[in-house]
Structure formats: C-alpha cells, structure tokens
Design a protein that fits this description.
This protein is mostly helical and 170 residues long. 82% of the residues lie in helices and 0% in strands.
Length: 170
C-alpha cells in the first residue's frame, strides 16, 4: 500500500470489516430468535421431537431460507407419529396443516420482520433496501445470492461513501 494512503485504506477496510461482522452477528441473532419460535410452535402442533427439530431449523435460518429443510421433516415426523398411533384419528389437518402453518408463520416473521429490522440496523441500510437486495441476489445467484448480497452491498455502500461522495464534496 502506498504509505500516504495507507491509513485511509485501512480505515475503509475497518468499516467493511465492521459491516461484514455486523451481518454475521445479525444472522446469528435471527437464528437464535427463530430457534425459540420453531420449537414453541411445533410443540403446540404436537410434532414429535419438536424441540430438537425446532432448534436445528432455527439455527439453519442463519443461511437465509435454508430452514426450509425443517418443514418437510416436521410434516413427516407428524405423519409417522399419527400412522404408528391410532389410525382412526388420521386427518390432514393435524398432519400437514398445523406443522406447515407454524413453519409459514415463523418464516413470515423471519423474512419480513426480523431480517429487515436486524440487518438494516447492523448494516446501516434501510429495511426496504435489505429486502430488495435479498430478492435481487436470490434471483441472480440462488443460495449464494441469498447469503452474500447484503454484506457485498454494505461494502459497496462504504466504497461509494468513502471514495465517490467524498470526491464529489471536494
């Protein structure tokens, strides 16, 4: 690095590091919150192994939408519980609807409330910006596009603020 610009470059890199670590800690917080919501909902839906399945599914939320693995498992476990028990009480409502409703409700809270709020605060971006970035990233890059666009957008924002906007002000 040029010695005259070394401190400036390090300052920009520190801001980027702070943004990426804010993203990581924000995703971990979202995982903790959903790891509390899934078990509670699946306990009410009487899904077997509700605690273990709920905690694992909640922590899979650290990678956006990876928690989708938990939903079919919850339905399958409920189905196996019902068919191995009293088959006279088999019905689609307790087997498919209640576990699915819990999953969809937690996903709604995570996707539309927790992620925009937590990530917008940790990344210093508006909640709408975070949603738009995730939608575009998912459409363009699939799974990686869901995980990487928020910290990349934060780093681009920092570069624009530090290099372009300060240059225009001068």
């Amino acid at each position: 690095m040029p010695s005259g610009k070394r401190e400036r470059i390090l300052q920009i890199l520190r801001r980027m590091d702070h943004a990426v670590s804010g993203f990581s800690s924000g995703r971990f917080l979202i995982g903790l919150l959903t790891a509390g919501m899934y078990p509670g909902g699946w306990a009410l839906a009487d899904v077997p192994y509700w605690f273990l399945l709920g905690v694992v599914t909640g922590f899979l939320t650290v990678v956006p939408y990876l928690s989708a693995i938990g939903w079919p498992l919850a339905v399958l476990l409920k189905y196996l519980d019902v068919i191995t028990g009293d088959t006279a009480s088999f019905g689609w409502l307790p087997v498919v609807v209640w576990p699915s409703l819990v999953y969809l409700m937690v996903q709604f809270v995570e996707s539309w409330i927790l992620t925009p709020l937590v990530q917008s605060r940790s990344m210093e971006m508006s909640a709408i910006t975070v949603l738009i970035i995730v939608f575009i990233g998912g459409a363009v890059g699939g799974l990686y596009g869901l995980l990487l666009p928020i910290p990349i957008a934060a780093c681009i924002k920092i570069l624009i603020q530090e290099l372009v906007l300060l240059g225009l002000e001068r």
